[in-house]
Amino acid sequence: MTPTATALAFRALDYRFEVHCPDTGLAGRVADIYRDLADPAPQPDDHRARYELALDAAGDMWTLHCDGADVLGPATGPRVLANLLWHVNAQTTQHRMPGHVVLHAAAAVWGDRAVVLPAPMESGKTTTVTGLLLAGFGYLTDEAAAVCVDDLHVEPFAKSLSVDDGSWPVLSMLEQLDAGGMPTQWQIPVSSLPSSRLAARTRVGTLVLPQYVAGSTTALEPLPRAGALMDLCASTFRFLEEPQRHLDALARLCREVPAYRLTIGSLAEAVDLVRDLMEAP
Amino acid sequence: MTAGVTLEDVLVPQPDVHVVALGDEKVIFVPRDETLQRLDPLASIVWDCLLPAAPLADIATDLAEAFGADRQQVSTDLLRLAADLLDSGALVRAGDAAELPPDA
To answer: Which residues of B touch A247 (CB under 8 A)?
Structure first.
């Protein structure tokens, strides 16, 4: 996408938004970070949230507004960018998606099935899914897996991989692909990865609940369905708004899809275990 | 632990508790304190037995007969489980449940 100072239109799950930025440098970074969410055919009557990044008179501090409301400011360029990403993620995961449950999860595709990796923050979702992508999996999301209740397909939410600095040593080969230039987190557009593949909506084949434990032995163990359901409930956005609907939908998912807990000491071993799981008949 | 649960008590699920069955287990969500609880197969059977609103003594008798178990032991286990579920807000005494507003 060509960096531009004019509006950039994107779609994250059902959340449509556009970003206005007068600075071609920052606009270019936004375009790069969201390149895989570019809305190819925005309709004039779509409701889109309107983000405006504005530079102050001195030309060194930024403010961020969403639909005219203050989000942040004044702040440095990296900080305003981080807040834009945070705000879009929050709005995306809180945006109502009829017929879906939205899990705090990464997801990737092998063959014709998706592996969904639900977990709290700092559990290794992004690191694990990045390892899977580098091993040839297709990409669905590193943040929010929207599962259709009718057919148990995961909708793609191909945001850039948000790789925190704790994972930089194990993913150091990605540094040159960082599109964000922020101090503690890389933003890696997946379409910039060598041999990357953005996956279309795909049926869930396996649930894998990852947990990074430094120094541990990497291991995969089956989870009883009720135990998996408890974990899924805790990882479901907006669970409290419709508990029974979410319980019913997640119980169906647990009835139809096997679940495992993945303790991660080594990323390479974890990737091998998940790939073996997906290749098993 | 809630004191005073006896075999004469009639306990029923709190009206706003959400329940789903998975095989022979259940998961319940208690809105009062936003907690999830997993009921093992035996606790799930007990949960189902609570729905007709019978005294715990009757439930203990039924379970002891159904499983060929010692009624005294069943009663002890049942009282412990009932007290835990009452404490967590998943169960309520039948009279208290009747006093809840319809949309509670």
So the answer is: 18-20, 27, 29
Reference A154, options A217, A111, A213, A106; nearest CA is: A106
Chain A, chain B: beta-carbon pairs less than 8 Å apart: 42
**Chain A contact present for B34, CB below 8 A:** yes
Q: What whole-number distance in Å separates Cα of residue A203 and Cα of residue A201?
A: 7
Q: Closest by alpha carbon to A123, among A57, A43, A207, A211? A: A211
> pLDDT for A117-129, tens place per residue?
999 888 889 999 9
Are A80 and A63 in contact by the 8 Å Cβ rule? The answer is yes
* Chain A contact set for B90 (CB, 8 A): none
- Are A94 and A237 in contact, with CB atoms under 8 Å apart? yes
Task: From B42, B47, B40, select the one nearest B86 (Cα to Cα).
Answer: B47
In whole angstroms, how large is the CA radius of gyration of chain B?
13
Give A196's DSSP letter: -
* Paired tokens of B4: 């005073």
User: pTM of the predicted model, to two decimals?
Assistant: 0.91
DSSP string for residues in A142-168: SSEEEEETTT-EEEP--PPEEEEGGGT
Q: Average of pLDDT values for B9-20?
A: 94
| Chain B nearest C-alpha distance from A6 (Å) | 45
Of the pLDDT bands very low, low, confident and very high (cuts 50, 70, 90), residue B17 is very high
| Nearest Cα to Cα of residue B39 among B7, B84, B8 | B84
Residues of chain A in contact with residue B20, where contact means CB-CB under 8 angstroms, are 229, 244, 247-248, 250-251
pLDDT tens figures, A61-107: 999 999 999 999 799 989 999 999 999 999 999 988 999 999 999 99
Contact B22 A226 (CB under 8 A): yes
ipTM, interface predicted TM-score of the complex: 0.85
Across the interface, do A243 and B29 touch by the CB < 8 Å criterion? yes
